[in-house]
């Protein structure tokens, strides 16, 4: 493999990653768009005809096609990164996190044979996905994302990156909300939920 | 052709989300458990550099590629909307380990189960549109 491909293929330092995200935001602004992914979910509803039923979806979705193209690109980017720039090792999670996850029945991959460390098999594995509990888990999780982001008017990209970069107080409140919900789920709900989905033998 | 630049920017975004490991469910758990600086470093760097870029664009009266002024829309002030809506999103973020950008990126990884998360997030957005008038904003 070429040295350049090897160089890109290592996991990126957080500072490089953060800088690249701000570059994406600036590029979208320069191209006449803005950085906010969750509004695509509203556009998808509008394209599906939801505007006939609810005014919230009566938008000229043709003006939003650029954003759909952007997330289409994100899918391709995910493909390219895993096919051509795959890391030599799984995601290196802190030992305390992986030790904790073990206690709630989630294995953190240590070798590429166990997985890339992006998503846990116990939740996303195709062989488990069709159990009732895993189906419910994924459906409820997605529903909360779609409902919550629209009520809050944005997600991590729209509020945490675009909004905070523009020093918007509403975005700061939204980010505080993201953490309230995230901490409640991580510390109080997920341990119960995951140990019931993945009973430890 | 005018969409090509958005496609390329999206491809860059998908690569960044993957190589930064921000799409990792494990990284999100680590973040909410305060056991690593990684995600805070990413978001912090993006916000600090982003704020500098936004300030420069405003000062230089930056224009888009087609010559229109770059607009920044201020968000309307509200507490319940952002705090409650944001908390509900946070619940889903910690569950699935994916916010909307990574959801789509993970599809490119071949994580097919994420398709279910994407579909139900569209459903959640639809439900919001249906009950919107009854919610505090």
From TrEMBL, chain B:
InterPro entries: Sulf_transp_TsuA/YedE. The chain crosses the membrane at residues 38-58, 79-98, 110-131. It comes from Flavilitoribacter nigricans (strain ATCC 23147 / DSM 23189 / NBRC 102662 / NCIMB 1420 / SS-2). Keywords: Membrane, Transmembrane, Transmembrane helix. This is Transporter. Pfam families: Sulf_transp.
């Amino acid at each position: 493999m070429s040295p350049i491909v090897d160089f890109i293929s290592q996991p990126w330092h957080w500072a490089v990653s953060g800088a690249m995200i701000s570059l994406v935001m600036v590029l979208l602004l320069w191209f006449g768009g803005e950085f906010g992914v969750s509004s695509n979910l509203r556009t998808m509803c509008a394209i599906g005809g939801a505007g006939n039923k609810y005014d919230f979806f009566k938008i000229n979705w043709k003006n939003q096609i650029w954003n759909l193209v952007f997330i289409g690109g994100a899918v391709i980017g995910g493909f390219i990164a895993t096919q051509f720039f795959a890391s030599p090792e799984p995601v290196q999670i802190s030992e305390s996190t992986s030790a904790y996850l073990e206690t709630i029945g989630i294995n953190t991959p240590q070798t590429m044979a166990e997985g890339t460390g992006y998503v846990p098999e116990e939740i996303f594995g195709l062989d488990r996905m069709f159990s009732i509990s895993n189906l419910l888990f994924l459906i409820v999780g997605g529903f909360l994302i779609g409902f919550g982001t629209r009520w809050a008017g944005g997600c991590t990209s729209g509020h945490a990156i675009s909004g905070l970069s523009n020093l918007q107080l509403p975005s700061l409140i939204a980010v505080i909300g993201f953490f309230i919900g995230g901490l409640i789920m991580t510390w109080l709900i997920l341990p119960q939920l995951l140990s019931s989905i993945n009973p430890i033998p | 052709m005018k969409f090509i630049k958005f496609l390329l920017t999206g491809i860059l975004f998908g690569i960044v989300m993957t190589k930064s490991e921000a799409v990792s469910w494990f990284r999100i758990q680590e973040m909410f458990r305060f056991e690593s600086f990684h995600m805070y470093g990413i978001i912090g760097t993006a916000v600090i550099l982003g704020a500098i870029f936004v300030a420069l664009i405003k000062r230089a009266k930056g224009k888009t590629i087609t010559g229109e002024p770059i607009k920044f829309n201020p968000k309307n002030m509200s507490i319940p909307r952002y705090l409650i809506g944001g908390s509900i999103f946070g619940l889903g973020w910690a569950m699935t380990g994916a916010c909307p950008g990574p959801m789509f990126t993970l599809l490119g990884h071949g994580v097919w189960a994420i398709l279910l998360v994407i579909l139900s997030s569209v459903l959640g957005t639809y439900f919001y549109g249906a009950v919107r008038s009854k919610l505090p904003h």
